[in-house]
Design a protein that fits this description.
seven-stranded mixed beta sheet; 236 residues; alpha+beta; three-stranded antiparallel beta sheet; 33% helix; 8 helices
């Protein structure tokens, strides 16, 4: 996949405010590796998105979500989620999350512009994801899973919360086979810019919960999330 990129060779330190402007312009930062102190801007020719009205919940995952195996929380441990996403694993020996990424996105979280969806089990953080929220767009950055299905459950809850809050765009940056099963697609840069501009017209507030800890009276968190997706839910 061709990707436009530009190194950030500047005497000025990148600020959270500049980073938010970059997202609104359709670009985002990455590092070559966790050990590389430099960042570069990325502007893919084809952008990965997940259409919210066509979100696909595989049948097996549907059952897992209903079982409420995990306690799902929002922003209860953003720094822990970010750190877990940056960890090297057997299946992911290196990541692009370096110290500068950690600094910037921690600052965005403090500005209420970055959020985490977390899955907990027996008091331990076992999976989740984080991303940036601007207007009616959410820019997914990274996810992790220490227990089978934990990151997938977090994604289901993210999309449910976005639909409830009226978001218009879930930006995935790039499409992977893992994300394709949920309905992720690629769109040309020009189309992405149009979708982004439309989403930024809205002023959505990222919700912290459905009620309680993503649960409602008479139903668990999973049932509540799936109910929010009912209009577009597809199982197979």
């Amino acid at each position: 996949m061709a990707t436009a990129r530009e190194d950030m060779r500047s005497p000025f330190r990148l600020t959270p405010e500049i980073l938010l402007k970059a997202y609104q312009a359709g670009i985002f930062p990455m590092a070559e590796s966790a050990d590389d102190p430099e960042l570069f801007w990325v502007d893919p020719e084809r952008r990965g998105i997940l259409p919210l009205d066509a979100f696909h919940v595989p049948r097996r995952l549907h059952r897992v979500v209903l079982q409420d195996r995990f306690k799902v929380r929002v922003d209860s441990n953003f720094t822990g989620t970010l750190a877990a996403c940056a960890e090297a694993t057997e299946n992911r020996p290196s990541t692009w999350i370096n110290a500068e990424i950690v600094r910037l996105y921690t600052a965005l979280h403090e500005l209420d512009a970055a959020h985490s969806i977390e899955c907990w089990h027996d008091g331990a953080l076992v999976g989740g994801l984080y991303g940036v929220s601007i207007g009616g767009a959410f820019f997914g950055e990274s996810m992790f899973s220490r227990v089978t299905d934990a990151s997938k459950v977090a994604l289901v809850h993210l999309v449910a919360l976005m639909r409830i809050a009226g978001y218009r765009l879930l930006d995935l940056q790039f499409v992977t086979p893992h994300l394709e099963q949920f309905g992720a697609i690629e769109v040309p840069r020009s189309q992405y810019r149009r979708l982004l501009a439309e989403a930024l017209r809205y002023r959505c507030v990222f919700p912290r919960e459905f009620g309680g800890e993503l649960g409602v009276a008479g139903g668990g968190a999973g049932a509540c999330a799936l109910a929010a997706l009912q209009a577009s839910k597809v199982t197979s």
